[in-house]
Amino acid sequence: MWAIVGSDGSVMMGFPWESNEAIALVMDEELGNLKKEDLVTEGYTGKSKISFHKSGHYKFNCRMGKTEEAIDRVTVTGPPFDKIKSLHRLAELLLPKELPKSNYSPTDRDIVIDVTGADTLPTRCTISCIDNDEFKKLIETNNRFVDTSIWEAWSGLENDTHTWVWTLRRSINDESYADKVYVTLLGSPKWGIG
Q: Is residue 92 assigned to a domain?
């Protein structure tokens, strides 16, 4: 995964491999669980990217809507960055046993998380955001970032006010590996008007 902080403080991250991005499930507090067939969707083929905007809007490349007229980029509304103080999970990635191949080689500007010393391969990656001062306090405690982790390996990316944490981990809730990478943005779906 790559990640950058934009000039406005937004964070973009992406995968260095080609993928077919599609909707599997949308969980909406009012509408319940919506499967792909319950929606109008347009997939995306290419190198997937997720944008985490300061406003609290988190976006995928693929598109969805309740109707053809209301189709728009998949957007989830979470807390704006200035409201995030303590550790807040923004996304959860379920991982296969082997990631897709990539021709990309990490550079000295990339975040690298070494899991070679772990007993097992990670089953997921949790992406969180936390106020910089709170992050410093948290890492001094040596507590885990996610309470369901059996083990964790992490790295962070800091901007002026917040630290973004990528936590590769094995969860007590995972019995097996996913068949491909599944990304869940945590928040409420923002529906287009149409």
A: yes
